[in-house]
Design brief:
The protein has 631 residues and is mainly beta. 8% of the residues lie in helices and 52% in strands. Strand 26 and strand 27 form a beta hairpin. Keywords: Signal. This is Porin.
Length: 631
């Protein structure tokens, strides 16, 4: 594995060097001399030497280009979230995982799907996969290299290395490499006893023609995510679970999610304000689960998921492929923006023990409209349908003082939940499509010269015909609707100039005939208290403070590693433990660094569970830094 990692780094570094050398030799390719002179002049210092920093790099996204938002963003050099590297804290504790970064993860609150067509059903590693909607497309005035490194307690680390540069003022290329190396927090034999290994490589490029009529965005992502499954603690009532040597169900098992994704978006302006576009996407996903010796992990098959046809070992394999092509027309007229499109999407799914290929061809018609009332207010409408009745109807009104939206969605049942045969599960189902309605609203208040910001918000979700996995890990469909009502508020307060207090609180109630299948906590809180200031004559940007999270106890979903799915359970309450972190962070020039003491309340008390039979991280010290190089 180390040899593979070394070769990958060698290839990445070699590519960076070759791109940089090539770009240096083809600077004369640019025909826009006046623009280049203007750009260079704007970044000259008093000694007429070129100065590059964070202000000379900006990025946009596919969504901004496709929907003509014409937005460019500065790279993040702030201290606000740099220390939030773990899966749960990076997502404001709004997700459930298995305790460790890189493990299977799901949202705590119901999320309306963007994709209404067929998918594989293997979605619990989606959060770690950088799909085309999350790719950043840059415009730089110099080559830019970024390094993000986290050295977490208990030998857990994450490395992000990125490189981007403009070949000329209209063409940018870049690479990003991500590596997770996460040791176990339970039943750990020692250093390099891995729980998660992840390698992800991205290539991205964007191009604009000289007359600005043609634009193209392309990216490729290779994602290899391997998890050494543990199955949870065998005896959760024992004090032994406080120790990292706590016995677990699985010691020989591993899961893998491998993906390849190609995405192209390009457009051509036919006339002033009238543009045609084409968008193509190819995704290949392979999921495996294996345990080569059930005699060692015998308690798992005895008490959890007995084997159906092989008592010695399990080797499961599923493959999913999708090919999508979308063509559309879009136009701007004054403060109106309108888009209409047709999309063809073909999906294919196969498993090891079912002969034949499952497939479905989907034809979509859709449209989007936006009316910009002013710089802070707009109206958005979206509709999408396919021939199977799946659809999205979405509307949102945004005002400087409030937001309100409505989303009505019918979405297809994943392949996994329909026909599946493995060594531990077997089913064949013919379910109706899932359906959901969601209303969201928020009021945005700003007082005391923006030193007090209050945002009360409300979410109402109605779900029916929902397909879920029961206590045995088998798919079922709800026979009655369920309603989730979640009022809450966000508060940000600055006082004494440098002190800041921020908190988010959500209270939730679930009602309806199918309320038991939606497991969300009654109370969620996430709070920060910190000091922030520029010190030493403004040369150092400093921030230090406390992060506190608390979720009330609830019967969270259990996890079935054989299918990589979260399932219902009624045996163990989780959470109900305040997680308190203390940190200091600072920025000097292009270097940002931090040190964080995690879960400091546990050092003198018991641990806690984030998922049934899976504990949260223990007390430890995390160190991290982010460094930009602008040459």
């Amino acid at each position: 594995m180390r040899n593979i990692f070394g070769w990958v780094l060698l290839v990445v570094v070699g590519f960076f060097c070759s791109i940089s050398a090539m770009a240096q030799n083809i600077d004369n390719f640019s025909q826009n001399v006046e623009r280049e002179k203007s750009n260079r002049q704007s970044i000259l210092d008093d000694s007429t030497k070129l100065v590059y920093d964070a202000s000379t790099i900006q990025y946009t996204t596919l969504k901004d280009v496709k929907f003509d938002q014409k937005r460019w963003y500065s790279i993040d050099t702030t201290l606000q979230r740099v220390r939030l590297w773990g899966t749960r804290e990076a997502n404001d504790y709004l997700v459930q995982n298995l305790g460790n970064p890189g493990t299977a993860v799901r949202p705590i609150y119901f999320v309306m799907p963007d994709q209404i067509g067929k998918n594989s059903g293997f979605q619990n590693y989606d959060l770690y996969f950088n799909d085309h909607n999350s790719i950043k497309y840059y415009d730089t005035k110099s080559p830019v290299t970024s390094i993000d490194l986290v050295l977490g307690s208990q030998t857990r680390s994450i490395l992000d290395v990125g490189f981007t540069r403009n070949v000329n003022p209209r063409w940018n290329v870049g690479l990003k490499f991500t590596h997770y190396s996460i040791d176990k927090i339970l039943d750990r034999a020692g250093k390099n006893d891995f729980n998660v290994l992840n390698y992800q490589l991205q290539f991205f490029t964007n191009y604009t023609s000289q007359n600005n009529k043609y634009k193209a965005l392309f990216n490729f992502t290779r994602f290899d995510h391997k998890v050494f499954e543990q199955g949870g603690i065998i005896n959760e009532d024992s004090l032994f679970y406080l120790n990292e040597q706590a016995p677990v169900y699985l010691t020989q098992a591993q899961s893998q999610d491998m993906r390849f994704n190609y995405h192209l978006y390009h457009q051509y302006e036919l006339a002033n304000g009238f543009t045609a576009y084409h968008e193509a996407d190819i995704l290949s996903q392979t999921n495996t689960f294996s345990d080569d010796d059930w005699t060692v992990d015998s308690l798992f098959i005895k008490y959890k998921y007995p084997p159906i046809f092989d008592e010695r070992m399990t080797n499961e394999l599923s493959r999913f492929n999708s090919v999508s092509n979308e063509v559309g027309l879009k136009g701007n007229w004054k403060n109106w923006y309108v888009l209409a499109y047709f999309r063809r999407r073909d999906t294919f799914f196969e498993t090891k023990y079912i002969s034949g290929l499952q497939s479905r061809g989907e034809n979509y018609l859709g449209g989007y409209m936006r009316l910009d009332l002013d710089s802070l207010s707009n109206v958005e409408l979206k509709a999408e349908f396919n021939q199977f009745g799946d659809h999205i109807l979405y509307g949102k009104y945004t005002h400087k003082l409030f937001d309100v939206s409505y989303n009505r969605t019918q979405f297809a049942v994943p392949y996994l939940y329909e026909d599946y045969l493995s060594n531990h599960h077997s089913w064949s189902n013919n379910f109706r499509a899932n359906q959901a309605d969601q209303i969201k609203g928020a009021i945005k208040l700003s007082l005391w010269n923006n030193n007090l910001r209050l945002k009360p918000h409300f979410t109402f979700t109605n779900v029916f015909d929902f397909v879920y996995l029961d206590e045995n890990g088998n798919p079922q469909q709800s026979g009655a609707p369920a309603q989730m009502i979640s009022p809450g508020f966000d508060l940000k307060l600055r006082f004494f100039k440098y002190l800041n207090f921020e908190t988010s609180i959500i209270y939730s109630v679930v009602t309806g005939g199918s309320r038991d299948i939606f497991r969300i906590p009654d109370l969620y809180t996430n709070t920060r208290f910190y000091f922030a200031n520029n010190i030493f004559g403004g040369k150092i940007n400093f921030q230090g403070g406390l992060d506190l999270h608390y979720t009330s106890e609830y019967y969270a979903y259990d996890y079935d590693p054989t299918t990589q799915q979260f399932i219902l359970q009624n045996n163990q309450l989780v959470e109900n433990f305040p997680v308190l972190d203390a940190y200091i962070s600072f920025t000097i020039s292009t270097l940002t660094a931090y040190i964080k003491a995690t879960n400091i309340l546990q050092s003198q008390g018991e641990g806690y569970f984030v998922t049934p039979y899976y504990t949260g991280p223990k007390t430890g010290i995390d160190i991290g830094f982010r460094w930009y190089f602008f040459d």
